[in-house]
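Holo model, S-adenosylmethionine. Inputs:
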Amino acid sequence: MRFVDFFSRQARKPRGLFGRFFMSKVFDKGNAELNALTLATLPLRDNARVLEIGSGTGALIEQLAGRPAVGLVEGVDFSKPMTAIARKRNREAIKMGRVRIHLGDFDATPFEPDAFDAIASVNTVYFWSKPAETMARIYELLRPGGAAIIGFHEKSDMERMPLDRDIFRYYSVEDMAALFADSANFRNIRTASEEGTGKTCYCALGFK
Ligand SMILES: C[S@@+](CC[C@H](N)C(=O)[O-])C[C@H]1O[C@@H](n2cnc3c(N)ncnc32)[C@H](O)[C@@H]1O
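Output:
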């Protein structure tokens, strides 16, 4: 297997020692700016219940759980090494009942409808095989007035990276707005952006 294919598969679902020790570092360093923009953009009401899809090493969860406004933060990730790292990183908050981390595919993990004030996903949308269905499910799980936020890098920046196009699906800002608009009744759809190191960071946002 070519390294580009191997790396792309690991980015989609980190596995084994390479996932645990190498991809975790790649995520923590490479996704920090996008996580920061997501945190700054996410509207949070008091005692908010927040879900992160593809929570990786749990870095955003840790920052969210540190916000006094947040009541409960949940993460779902189908990678065993990532889930183990995220649980270790957030062990005190898990003990306090402020964080829960689920091992599983978001599309197959049961959550109640109208349960969340906010649902975030950072650098993970590229891997969704049925993005419209996943967005429709996000809509269903949000309480009325709740917000979905997708952190991503735009197609033209992603195209410059050596990644496997069979694994990564790229989105322009317009593609992402259309994904929100066409998959469910999201309203007030908008995009925030900030220049990052080498790539622009984008957060697309929509409300139920
Ligand atoms: C590129 S990493 C991003 C991790 C984290 N959001 C961050 O910014 O550091 C993508 C993560 O999403 C997870 N993932 C991808 N598709 C998923 C799915 N359908 N359900 C649950 N987790 C998923 C992977 O296991 C991986 O940990």
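Residues 11-14, 27, 31, 35, 54-57, 59, 76-79, 82, 105-107, 122-124, 127 surround S-adenosylmethionine (CB under 6 Å). The chain has nine helices and seven strands.
Archived with the compound record.
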